[in-house]
């Protein structure tokens, strides 16, 4: 598909000014004139994509976020005197929200290919967003089947740093910085989430703080060798931080995994504790019962000797044997409380790795969490207060705190429903998808809807590879444990069950990771 546009004609200097700064004049315009709201609605319905492209061609997306803020200021002032009813008013408010989301989630794509706003981006936006409703059926767009997300969620952006780990985060008025295990400090724009510059610290960056004078970050590598405390009687006490810390009792089991960089330690009646070998930092725990103390006695514990298969096994005194992922630390929860009443306002459930650090933005309407190799930026509506001229909020305002706390998740799908691999059927009507929980399901390609559960791997471990052989009508699947299954499957042309799994003709477990399936 060719998305290239013909060269644009030369523009007058005033046009460049209008592209970047027109919204500033709107924020100061009279709010009693309905014609301005009607004109804004018509502009966004007809010329918004061209305007977004022209902004992106300037290699600076801040005019988009500034426009969203100015629209909020104008509409908030207008709502004090006029009823915020009417489709034009709601459309303008929705566009103010969508502009922030476009920059946060598609900023890199816009800067690299500005014309993508015409043919690609609207089709992958949530189906309830105003940009999708207005432009998803634009001439020659990308057609995407099976979109399940109806609206934007509270996570504005997720920044991933490959081949390294994010260790800390710090925020300033207009930017934020993350410290990485490879010794780099990356500084990002607080509105567009685009990287501004990088600093080479030279060692793992474990603490960041912005200077109150010039707004520059300062980094510290390893913790100091001494722990210092001041007492009420004006004395300073020092402890040697190099001395061993941990449980007083001796461990009953310990195992290393050099490939995963983990040390697993088992204490009597305690959860299994994991430490990072390189940094000696706490990495997480495995609980069988969920209790901190009085866990069942552990008979044996070990890592999978093949480090590419991130699994560990533990045998308990009661006869149970558990196999789990030591790199994933179960359910991780972020809870926000009202400072005065200590009432729960907001809760984020996640099945990703443990959170290493959390920081609030300077205005208090966003917060950042870091885990493993990425940083999440959240803007929940419960943090929003009445907008003012310095507020960069992108969510509708409310002065009232909801009676019941809000709940969300850091994943768009339920745990275990993450697709890990897929294979297409030759007729083009169906697609087989392998999941995290070891199941293989069939879907319609034209609608993305689920049709049938095809097979289940007995281990319940993620499917890594799928292969369809049309000649022999065989479906081959491999899970993360190395289990290989081959089933003979026929198409019986039923509406509800289009595939008939006749029998399993092959099963084996590979002693080493399987990299590829061939016919």
Structural notes for this entry:
The chain has 519 residues and is of the alpha+beta class. Among the domains are: 13-146; 419-509, Thrombin, subunit H, CATH 2.40.10. It has eight helices and 30 strands. The protein has helices spanning 13-27, 34-46, 48-57, 62-79, 87-112, 116-119, 121-124, 130-135; strands spanning 155-160, 166-171, 175-180, 184-189, 195-200, 207-210, 217-220, 226-230, 236-240, 253-257, 262-266, 272-276, 282-286, 298-303, 312-316, 321-324, 332-337, 344-350, 357-360, 367-371, 374-378, 406-409, 419-424, 430-435, 439-444, 450-456, 463-469, 474-479, 483-491, 499-509. It has a four-stranded antiparallel beta sheet with strand order 1-21-20-19. Strands 2-3-4-5 form a four-stranded antiparallel beta sheet, with no helix packed on it. It has a four-stranded antiparallel beta sheet with strand order 10-11-12-13, with no helix packed on it. Strand 3 (175-180) and strand 4 form a beta hairpin. The two termini are 31 Å apart. Mean pLDDT is 79; it is low at 214-232, 385-402 and 412-416.
